[in-house]
Amino acid sequence: MGSKCSKLTSCCWASQQNEPIYEAPTRVEKEEKSEGDELPIFCEFTIEQLRNATSGFAAENIVSEHGEKAPNVVYKGKLDQKRIAVKRFNRSAWPDARQFLEEARSVGQLRNHRLANLLGCCCEGSERLLVAEFMPNETLAKHLFHWDTQPMKWAMRLRVALYLAQALDYCTGKGRALYHDLNAYRVVFDDDGNPRLSCFGLMKNSRDGKSYSTNLAFTPPEYLRTGRVTPESVVYSFGTLLLDLLSGKHIPPSHALDLIRDRNIQKLTDSCLEGQFSNDEGTELLRLASRCLQYEPRERPNPKSLAAALIPLQKETEVPSHELMGIPHSAASFPLSALGEACVRKDLTAIHEILHKIGYKDDDGAATELSFQMWTHQMQDTLNSKKKGDVAFRHKDFRAAIECYTQFIDAGTMASPTVFARRSLSYLMNNMLQEALDDAVQAQVISPVWHIASYLQATSLFALGRENEAQIALKEGSILEEKRNETS
């Protein structure tokens, strides 16, 4: 199936206004009103686009747990400088292409700042993929159960509960009340540290395309009887998440309800939260959890009433989420290397010196493969064009470098990230900005974790006046460079 939106052009990235839902009169409200991110309309992509965006579905780009129990893998990627998450279903899922497209398009109509929204899908042959906004700051499970530097603060846990209830209320209001496998791995954090509900859980996930499956650790009672998820089942799962937030660990609902009946709040409370909340606050959250966990589905509250009950509990409402989480903000300054500084200054001479100095040492296996094929005349000609390009690059004859490197690239014998990087800089020197950006992107497709490629993208984007995207690429380059230095 061809792409109905072959590239994310301005027609795809059309403005979409988020619809208002419950909002506390706080700093958060001001933040949402000034939210400038515009989301594209739902698009259908080709498998080739998504393969390129994820560097060939490279293992380095996998961001989800996967295996026999979770065969559908999620990759991070970049499509026209927009960071994306790509969920690739296993080949036995969704045999009916029409049902998959209908389901994806339906979920793709949702647009809200409480969701990690669905941007598009791919349905070619046996391939079934979803494309969503990329959330860079891990999952609730990571921050709650496997934290590194600090446990999640009480005020942030309350904010997570509220935002999640608001997300479910929005979905319910849009006719998407069912959610597959609601748990701490489905809650992800955006650039600002705000929690969002993954849109992937809104998709049905079965061979017949009609029902939801579940891998829940704590399954709603009615699911055991009927094998079906209902809106009330989702509320039950929300109750288990409230227990997670209060305790900082997985607690079986039946055990939790026994402790609640015995008024034994202490055993349910995360010891890391000592002194951060009153007994009344803990009691109220437990009361909400116990209502969600009622055995009879009809006795559970709906998301709208849950959100209304959670608003008065909010604390430190003027503090941004990234501060509560201890996450560096995307707009905050971060240390830059000499190369990063040169990119910000658009100091092409300094970048040239660095690229010339590192040579081809980052082209894994390229020299070996080239030398093996040197016996052919065609390969010798290709190598000669590369060598001529290197001489021109060294002597700053950038037009000649572009011509020679183009001959090498067009031969198609060897994919060299360094050649693309050098031609990218040569294009920049000749003020061919879009060509420079395209080459920097291609260098990263070949070598997904190469910091030079990200830095050259940042330089090109700065030159194009695309400041926000340039800052993202600059930060990515800095992170990749730091990781590289740590491993070496």
TrEMBL record:
<keyword id="KW-1070">Brassinosteroid signaling pathway</keyword>
<keyword id="KW-0449">Lipoprotein</keyword>
<keyword id="KW-0723">Serine/threonine-protein kinase</keyword>
<feature type="domain" description="Protein kinase">
    <location>
        <begin position="60"/>
        <end position="325"/>
    </location>
</feature>
<keyword id="KW-0808">Transferase</keyword>
<dbReference type="InterPro" id="IPR011009">
    <property type="entry name" value="Kinase-like_dom_sf"/>
</dbReference>
<dbReference type="InterPro" id="IPR001245">
    <property type="entry name" value="Ser-Thr/Tyr_kinase_cat_dom"/>
</dbReference>
<protein>
    <recommendedName>
        <fullName>non-specific serine/threonine protein kinase</fullName>
        <ecNumber>2.7.11.1</ecNumber>
    </recommendedName>
</protein>
<dbReference type="Pfam" id="PF07714">
    <property type="entry name" value="PK_Tyr_Ser-Thr"/>
</dbReference>
<keyword id="KW-0547">Nucleotide-binding</keyword>
<dbReference type="GO" id="GO:0005524">
    <property type="term" value="F:ATP binding"/>
</dbReference>
<dbReference type="Pfam" id="PF25575">
    <property type="entry name" value="TPR_BSK1_C"/>
</dbReference>
<dbReference type="GO" id="GO:0004674">
    <property type="term" value="F:protein serine/threonine kinase activity"/>
</dbReference>
<dbReference type="InterPro" id="IPR000719">
    <property type="entry name" value="Prot_kinase_dom"/>
</dbReference>
<dbReference type="InterPro" id="IPR045845">
    <property type="entry name" value="BSK"/>
</dbReference>
<keyword id="KW-0418">Kinase</keyword>
<dbReference type="InterPro" id="IPR058209">
    <property type="entry name" value="TPR_BSK1_C"/>
</dbReference>
<dbReference type="InterPro" id="IPR011990">
    <property type="entry name" value="TPR-like_helical_dom_sf"/>
</dbReference>
<keyword id="KW-0519">Myristate</keyword>
<dbReference type="GO" id="GO:0005886">
    <property type="term" value="C:plasma membrane"/>
</dbReference>
<dbReference type="GO" id="GO:0009742">
    <property type="term" value="P:brassinosteroid mediated signaling pathway"/>
</dbReference>
<comment type="similarity">
    <text>Belongs to the protein kinase superfamily. Ser/Thr protein kinase family.</text>
</comment>
<keyword id="KW-1003">Cell membrane</keyword>
<keyword id="KW-0067">ATP-binding</keyword>
<keyword id="KW-0472">Membrane</keyword>
